[in-house]
Amino acid sequence: MPRQINCTMTGLRTDVPTLQIDTVPHVYLADVTEPGRAIFRVSDGDPPWGATITFGRQTVRLVIPLGNGATEGPWLNYPPAPVPLERLHVEGTAFITASGQPWIWKGCSDFLLYKRFLEGEDLTRLLEERRELGANLLRVFGMLHFIERFSPKAYRGSYYESLPLFADLLALSGFYLEFVTFADQQQIGVVEQTHFVECCDQLATRPNTFIELCNEYPKNGIDPRHFSKPAEILASAGSALADAAPDVFWDFFGWHGRRDWPKVTSSCEDMYAVIQQRQIPGVHDEPARQDRPAEFSPHLAAQIALTSRLLGSGATFHSISGLRSQPFTPFELECAHAFFVELT
């Protein structure tokens, strides 16, 4: 009778656990047919020895027991299943959940995340980093030309159809998605109405989505007056240039504040004036980023976040690494931690 190691599994299982005995080349896959249990059956020929169980991104050590029969092994505590995200709506100047609770925008710029997804990259570590810092939303671009080449035309047959799957992936990690449909359109040149309507139709099927028509539309080839607000999804008609209000307003608006000193410290006051005038939520979408450490600090990041929460509906942490959807540098991590603490 082979030796058997029985483990209890808790949380959201994302893979089949494996067991590797030290110095033994064979890897054992767990039998997970019984709910909540992982059962390893070890060959009689493998000696008692130290071993490693790998599950998800975690590992535990154990000693293979002597003799035959079954032994209770360690608990394998996977991360808990995320709480389903509720569809949001707007009441006055606030975002409200379906159960009636206020919701604060705690965003993170991740412009190229959809490109990374379409190209099959493993986003697990990146999403974990953003979530552990405190982000609850990712601001993702649907096209780019200058930072990196990313055009819907390069993904025919998968670009639009994959949007709901992408939204589902973010939801499983606890994120809402703000999908920016246009950027650098003057270079990319998709059919505007077709592209916008298709993106809206695909994403409206998911409760964790927002649409932004265009990033800084005055310089990105889009006139928001030529578009209609989509139904069944919260939408912004697009952000204007630094410290300027958009010309067209839908459900909410993004504010791109000035980054020069000392205006960077008071840009939210101008956003607040527009919020009070329009009586819709405003989000500080692209505050100062960390490309000039001599002019930026965790203290300033915290100040921007705090004023964005007090005077608006939240903010998006903006960074150089976020432009390319890469892990944060140590300095960016320090600033991001200070930023999200003040949004909580």
Q: Could you characterize what this model shows?
A:
The chain has helices spanning 113-118, 124-133, 163-172, 185-188, 192-203, 267-278, 298-311, 320-324, 330-343; strands at 3-10, 18-21, 27-29, 37-42, 50-55, 58-63, 69-72, 76-77, 88-91, 94-97, 102-103, 105-109, 137-141, 176-182, 209-214, 234-236, 253-255, 282-284, 314-317. The chain is of the alpha/beta class and 344 residues long. The chain has 2 domains: 3-77, Sandwich (Immunoglobulin-like); 88-343, Glycosidases (TIM Barrel), CATH 3.20.20. It is elongated and about 75 Å long. The termini are far apart. The mean pLDDT is 91.
The largest β sheet comes out as: 6 strands, parallel
List SSEs in N-to-C order. EEEEEEEEEEEEHHEHEHHEEEHEHEHH
Tell me what the CATH architecture of the largest domain is: Alpha-Beta Barrel
Number of helices: 9
In the predicted model, the low-confidence regions spanning at least 5 consecutive residues are none
CATH superfamily of the largest domain: Glycosidases
Helical fraction equals 25-40%
Ends apart, CA distance between termini: 55 Å
Here the CATH topology of the largest domain equals TIM Barrel
Widest beta sheet: strand line-up: 16-15-14-13-12-19
CATH class of the largest domain: Alpha Beta
Please, how many domains?
A: 2
Would you tell me the overall average pLDDT? 91
Structural class: alpha/beta
Strand content: 15-25%
- Radius of gyration based on Cα positions: 24 Å
Sum up the overall morphology in one term: elongated
Strand count: 19
